[in-house]
Amino acid sequence: MPRRESEVLGALLQLSSRDLDDTEISRLLTLFKDIPDLHLRAALHHRLNQLDAGELYVAALDAYEKEAASAAEDDKAFSGRGLQRLCYADYARYLLDTGFTIPARINLNKALEFGATESRPTLFVVDCLLLKASAEDIAGESGAANDSLTLAAKLAGELLPAGHTQLASVHDRFGWTNMSRWQLFEARKHFEMALAIRREIALPDLMTRVAMMHDEHGLAMVSRFSGDIADARTRYGRLVGEVKSLVAEAQSRYETELVYGRLVNTLERLADCYLFSTPPQPEDAYGRIEEAVSLCESMSPQSKFRTRARLRCKQAMVLALAGESQGATDVIARMKKQDYQNLVGQQVHEIDLYVSAHRGHS
Questions:
Q1: Can you give the pLDDT at residue 63?
Q2: What are the CA-CA distances from residue 262 to residues 194, 203, 216, 226 (Å)?
Q3: What value does the CA radius of gyration of the chain take, rounded to a whole number of Å?
Q4: Contact status, residue 361 vs residue 325, Cβ threshold 8 Å
């Protein structure tokens, strides 16, 4: 293998095998700069939370369009159609990560455009439909989200083996969509069905176990929204311990980020059970949020700044409720210095809303 290709391969392995500091990330970006495959570069920059990832995806899609046009002029089939479709889906995922739901849906629709003679990879189609439903749900279009989920469930049920884990993913998405509409009975049913499928796996890997904990997380939220705060606290508290037990089992950077992402989210929701209870219990909420903030550094680059910024805004709300206005102001200042500048897209607007909420409590 040529030296240059060997260096790039080694760098790719680093992305999933160990933590990277700013100096290492800078070195990798320099190394990736000369990769001719724009799609791959875009995916790498997306993985490293770089602001130019979106521009690279657009450039990659433009390149695919030119290749397709050139093939059409020569009256040849475009051999890169599958990769082009994957690029639309990858770009849509980036747009969802940065809060741009409308262009995300446009790109997912393009990813799902198939010619009459083209094969339709079931897993890819179902995954795109689940992403599309998520975007539609965020946009408040529950009817469209339900249509996408119904089609995903139909395809998965007809074309995948019984008990396939993608069926569990469909039930997950149905559950969270039901939650957004306060359809708690239906949400519980789908979370339980997802769990039932995953529990049939004889030797579940770490990712499956994290997914099962996410299903349990959904059931805890059903309890909280049903008014059973005590049960929700018990469930979230148990989940915190279970997720912590998985940290030592993570075998790669990706798995580590996955586990810490679930742990941070569970701690935040446990804190919510105290922060938004009647009456609020700010002292109990603060400890969980403080622990969650301390763990954000181990999350993925795409998530840690947004998550830590949101958590610090909640910290400020807790301090304001406790009458510590100066402490709340200091936390917001720290957030703006360390996290705010790294936000992209609609993430900025989201955090601005949290800051406004903090001011309302001050």
A1: 93
A2: 17, 21, 11, 22
A3: 22
A4: no
Lowest-pLDDT range of 39-43, 213-217, 254-258, 343-347: 343-347
CB 178 within 8 A of CB 162: no
Helices and strands (DSSP H and E) totals, the chain: 17, 0
d(CA 326, CA 352): 19
Residue found by looking up tokens 């469209």 in the block: 144
Residue in 358, 300, 298, 302 with CA at minimum distance from that of residue 334? 358
Distance CA 281, CA 271 (A): 9
Q: Is 101 exposed, middle or buried (0-12, 13-18, 19+ CB in 10 A)?
A: buried
What tokens appear for 313 in the block? 């805004």
Peptide bond preceding 36: is omega within 30 degrees of 0, i.e. cis? no
**Which residue is associated with the tokens 């996955």?**
258
Cβ atoms of 343 and 352 closer than 8 Å: no
Most confident range (mean pLDDT) of 68-72, 98-102, 208-212 is 208-212
Integer Cα distance of 256 and 247 in angstroms:
7
Assess contact for 56 and 12: CB atoms under 8 A. no
Q: Which of helix, strand or coil describes residue 273?
A: helix
Q: Which amino acid is at 40?
A: L
